[in-house]
Amino acid sequence: MLQKPNTFLSVDLNALVHNYLFFKSKTKDSTKLVAVIKAFAYGHEAIEIAKYLESLEVDYFGVAYIQEGIKLRKAGIKTPIIVFHSQLSDIEECFKYQLEPSIYSFRVLNYFLELTNIHKLTNFPIHIMFNTGMNRLGFSQKDISQIVSLVSKNNNLKIASILSHLVASEDSNQKHFTQNQINLFSSIIDEFESQLPYSFDKHIANSTGVLNYSEAHFNMVRVGIGLYGYANDKKWTKRLRNVSKLHSIISQIHLIKKGESVGYNRVFKAEKKTISATISIGYADGIPRSWGNGVGYVTIKGEKAYILGNVTMDMLMVDVTNIACKEGDEVLFFETQEIVEDLALRTNTISYEVLTAISQRIPRIIVPKI
Ligand SMILES: *Cc1c(COP(=O)(O)O)cnc(C)c1O
């Protein structure tokens, strides 16, 4: 008899819609929203999430790579898709799948222009990315006239939007820097407005940019982590709901005598009688080895059970000495946003990394909208 998998990630569409509406409530009705669903929707489940957000008439989806966009199109997603990091190797696929590349350098712009010529395309939408301080991808302000002259030579391309990216919108110590980014972006927009005969969208704010800088909304915002319930700040995260929980079960319980050890390399040695529970999830599933030896924990019957010894590839053991539990009982990872942020902090990382690390080996189960 086939049952529900023991280990799975539940993805709650009720929480997703709550978070989506929360961000909508923080922007004007006329402000467009790009739902960022790169990296499997931050480790959740991009296709089901996209289908659901499409039913809510989200304006755009944002992905990092063209292949991510192709997957969405193959699943029947019709909403416009921006590809933030388009690359020459597969940028030609943009035509077949109607993906809108963000173009960040003359190398990419010239190549793409040439392709639109070959394919005899007109007004193909592109997005022009500016570097306003991140120093990752993007043109600089001095490139504007050349961009406009290249794009205006014929009508192969149409600039659908101008974008940039905030470096530290969650960090109140960087307010001055962020403000400068916003100001530089505004002046870039002004130049385009005076040089282009048509209007275009403008966007620089990510999730925390939306929450902390209303002056950075322009007419479009890009929300990623916030959709999944995180906002890099307790005050905002409290207003959001946790979309995913990782579920597993206790596969086996062992009584460990004083002096015995648990797991590889005998890193955990019992100083007293200990009860260990084996959970069917390991580092190949995205639970980092750095959570071993009492750093990370799971929740069993509402209580924290710390990891004993090293995390192994497919399993880990936790201390349940003081928890009344039995084999087959449910185990939760990431039950709340607070737990995810605490675990991230303990290993010097951020919620983004914890969530996106959950491997594709773990089945995703969608909790439908009530
Ligand atoms: C990932 C990404 C975002 C989303 O950022 P969050 O902090 O998750 O909201 C927005 N814009 C670009 C260009 C990105 O790469």
Write the topology of this structure.
Blueprint: E1 8-12, H1 13-25, E2 32-36, H2 38-43, H3 46-55, E3 60-63, H4 66-74, E4 81-83, H5 93-97, E5 100-103, H6 106-118, E6 124-129, H7 144-152, E7 157-163, H8 175-195, E8 201-203, H9 207-212, E9 220-223, H10 234-237, E10 244-256, E11 261-262, E12 268-269, E13 274-279, E14 297-300, E15 303-308, E16 316-319, E17 330-333, H11 337-346, H12 351-356, E18 364-367
Parallel strand pairs: 1-18, 2-3, 2-9, 3-4, 4-5, 5-6, 6-7, 7-8
Antiparallel strand pairs: 1-10, 10-13, 10-17, 11-12, 13-16, 14-15, 15-16
Bound molecules: pyridoxal-5'-phosphate.
Describe this entry's structure for a reader.
There is one protein chain. With 370 residues, the chain is of the alpha/beta class. Helices cover 30% and strands 23% of the residues. The chain has 12 helices and 18 strands. The strands form 3 sheets. Strands 1, 10, 13, 14, 15, 16, 17 and 18 form an 8-stranded mixed sheet that branches. It has an 8-stranded parallel sheet with strand order 8-7-6-5-4-3-2-9. Strands 11-12 form a two-stranded antiparallel sheet. Strand 6, helix 7 and strand 7 form a beta-alpha-beta unit. The structure holds pyridoxal-5'-phosphate. The site of pyridoxal-5'-phosphate (PLP) has 11 residues, from strand 9.
